[in-house]
Design a protein that fits this description.
- The structure holds two protein chains of two kinds.
- In chain A, 70% of the residues lie in helices and 8% in strands.
- Chain A contains ten helices and four strands, in the order ααβαβαβαβααααα.
- Chain A has a four-stranded antiparallel sheet with strand order 2-3-1-4.
- Chain A is rod-shaped and about 100 Å long.
- In chain B, the strands form two sheets. In chain B, strands 3, 6, 7, 8, 9, 10 and 11 form a seven-stranded mixed sheet that branches.
- By secondary structure, chain B is α/β, with parallel strands linked by helices.
- Classes of the chains: A alpha+beta, B alpha/beta.
- At the A-B interface, α7 of A face α2 and α3 of B.
């Protein structure tokens, strides 16, 4: 079987010994590609998640009205809702029901507590119709309007308290891309080492080829072809494994009803980029092998 | 008659040691047959290395096929090497290639299509008497068989200059005579032949051969015109 495979190969390929996979390099490349694609996917998904969250939160704010007297609180809340709904910069105004608030407080205060007994603030969610720098102006206008109705009310922009989370997500994304870059560097180093080792191992064959009139280009092409094939095999294997893991994780994530987690999905162009990563590795390996061998051969006559 | 090789005051030194070859000045004519003789360590292999461009001299000038090869750029070397056939003293066969693939190597390097090299390779195998060992790896061949594969590899490309370092060192007298006849036939087709040997029996086998003798890195007969055979039975040096 092996001899049939060996005979089926091109005669030039037989100039270098070994089988289809030369040593551990394809497997190292497979592992590196696997990790790189996963890191890349994590980075892209988090970037997408952060972006989705930012879009969702950037023009949303909550008016909090702290008033111990329930009747005054409800009256002020209704007035604020009316005034805000009339503002052109506002798309939607929704009061958070007391029953919802009570449900949220349940883990701390217990089921039997009555909201009437506690000075639970009234919450009014506001969606802005404006974006960008107009959000700050609208927020100031709303704050002024709300304070005029009730000095005890204050406005909280969602973007402000989600900023640390967004920062964290962004930082993780940057780390993921740093890992991708480091993996690319490590892959290049692995290829350089493999090329040097291959050159050292086959030095006698190379010398003979040189003496018989082979040019550096012919020798380099021979090694490059072999290394590109090995790296391609490893890269494909790593990509296949990583895509399988991403699909499995994606399926699990889709089952979690959580804004932050479910928003971290891969965009369509992200899939394309992930497939391009191994191709970039192959290209990088091709260049690294070429440069290494060219330098090594330059030392001989 | 055109000069194919010209040495002028050539010296060769390995590292910082003494000169292995000194003051070599000679010319080789196209289409001639040369025997290079000398005791072991006289510098025969070093001189051949200069001829087949495996080494640059430490000093002096070498012109090969009319071109200065001492200052020649590396990139131009392969073109010149393809015009030279080499039989190495230690054969230097590629160990993982079969006899036929070793013989085909120069043609493959020269870019000859596969379909066009099968015939010449088979002919060469027949010529050196190894047709039945075509698929054998060098490790499974005897020293003499390896020698014959090395010779077939050197001549398959019909080189303009054939350089052979002790080509009959590992074969019996009958095979040695056959190989020298082979070289002679190649020479008659126009190839310039340089054979390094200290086998005196060979020297009388080629009537028109000229002899160059090296002694401690210097040519004893710098003109290269010493005609052979000097009918001697035992070495005088």
């Amino acid at each position: 079987m092996v001899s049939i495979a060996a005979r089926a190969r091109k005669p030039q390929d037989r100039l270098l010994p070994q089988g289809r996979l030369s040593g551990p390099m394809p497997w190292i490349i497979a592992i590196m590609t696997f990790l790189t694609v996963l890191a890349g996917a994590a980075g892209l998904a988090l970037r997408q998640g952060a972006s989705t969250l930012a879009d969702a939160m950037a023009n949303r704010l909550t008016v909090q009205l702290v008033e111990p007297d329930a009747a005054d609180r409800d009256a002020a809340s209704r007035r604020i809702q009316r005034e805000l709904a009339a503002m052109p910069a506002i798309k939607a105004v929704r009061a958070v029901g007391q029953d919802v608030l009570a449900r949220q407080l349940e883990p701390w205060l217990g089921r039997d507590i009555s909201t009437a007994d506690l000075p639970i603030p009234a919450l009014i969610d506001v969606d802005l119709a404006v974006t960008g720098s107009a959000v700050d102006t609208a927020t100031r206008d709303i704050e002024r309007e709300v304070k005029a109705i009730s000095p005890k009310a204050h406005v909280q922009a969602h973007a402000a308290y989600l900023r640390p989370v967004a920062m964290l997500v962004q930082t993780i994304g940057v780390i993921a891309f740093a890992i991708v870059t480091l993996m690319a560097v490590a892959t290049s180093c692995a290829v350089v080492l493999a090329a040097r080792a291959a050159h050292a191992t086959h030095r006698d064959t190379i010398d003979i080829m040189h003496m018989l009139g082979a040019s550096d280009r012919q020798v380099i092409r021979l090694f490059q072809r072999r290394m590109t094939r090995d790296v391609s095999f490893g890269a494909l294997l790593g990509l296949g494994g990583a895509l399988a893991v991403i699909l499995l994780v994606g399926r699990s994530v889709s089952l979690i009803a959580n804004d932050l987690v479910s928003s971290a999905s891969l965009p369509d162009w992200g899939w394309g980029l992930l497939v391009l990563l191994p191709l970039a590795f192959v290209g990088l390996a091709w260049i690294a092998a070429r440069q290494t061998l060219r330098r090594a051969l330059g030392g001989s006559l | 008659m055109a000069t194919i090789v010209q040495f002028e005051n050539v010296g060769l030194r390995y590292g910082l040691g003494a000169e292995t070859l000194s003051d070599l000045s000679f010319a080789l004519d196209e289409g001639q047959f040369y025997f290079l003789t000398g005791a072991s360590g006289a510098g025969k292999t070093s001189l051949l290395k200069l001829l087949y461009l495996a080494q640059r001299p430490s000093r002096g000038a070498i012109r090969l096929f009319g071109t200065d090869v001492v200052t020649m750029a590396r990139g131009r070397m392969p073109g010149f090497r393809r015009r030279i056939g080499v039989v190495f003293q230690d054969f230097r066969l590629v160990p993982h290639l079969s006899a036929q693939d070793n013989i085909a190597l120069p043609l493959r390097i020269a870019g000859v299509p596969e379909a066009q090299l099968r015939g010449p390779v088979a002919e060469m195998l027949q010529w050196v008497g190894l047709a039945d060992r075509a698929a054998a790896l060098p490790a499974t061949l005897s020293g003499g068989e390896q020698q014959r594969v090395a010779i077939a590899r050197a001549v398959i490309g019909r080189p303009e200059l054939l350089v052979a370092d002790e080509p009959t060192g590992n074969v019996d007298m009958e095979m040695a005579a056959r190989l020298i006849t082979l070289f002679d036939a190649l020479n008659k087709l126009g190839t310039t032949i340089v054979v390094a040997t200290h086998d005196f029996h060979l020297l009388g086998k080629v009537n028109e051969a000229r002899m160059m003798r090296l002694d401690r890195g210097r040519l004893v007969d710098p003109t290269g015109n010493l005609r052979h055979p000097p009918r001697i039975e035992a070495p005088q040096w």
